[in-house]
Specification:
With 128 residues, this protein is α/β, with parallel strands linked by helices. It contains 6 helices and 5 strands.
């Protein structure tokens, strides 16, 4: 089984078709693409992200909540919105959030992602 992660901004029609055709041989993980959008100076709408997940012709093995770079409160708000809409995203603990939020996320998820590491200063200290 091949694990494949693709960020939402890169999910073009041909990518979706290829993933769909090979779904029996892969575990597809959808990344929200928050970092990609942030680096490009763009934003991603929670409504668009949720609609995209619903429109997929197959179910991803896992998908991340739409985090907001540098804003743990908004990331958590997006996580709550997705839960309220019936989604089961992997929550993203964002660098700068209170460590107590890890326990909060574990109330609704058995796995957790850590965001805010790539392309930012001081990330090694955060991991330690």
């Amino acid at each position: 089984m091949l694990n494949i992660l693709v960020a939402y901004p890169y999910m073009k029609k041909n990518v979706v078709e290829t993933l769909y055709k090979n779904q029996k041989d892969i575990r597809f993980i959808l990344d929200s693409g928050a970092f990609t959008a942030w680096k490009a100076g763009k934003s991603i709408s929670i409504d668009d992200y949720c609609a995209f997940i619903e429109s997929l012709p197959f179910k991803p093995w896992r998908y991340f909540n739409l985090d907001v770079i540098g804003n743990g409160e908004k990331s958590f708000e997006n996580y709550q919105i997705m839960l309220d809409r019936g989604f089961n995203p992997v929550p993203v603990f964002t660098r700068g959030e209170d460590v107590k939020m890890i326990d909060e996320y574990y109330k609704t998820s058995e796995v957790l992602a850590i965001g805010g590491l790539v392309g930012t200063e001081g990330n090694k200290g955060f991991v330690k």
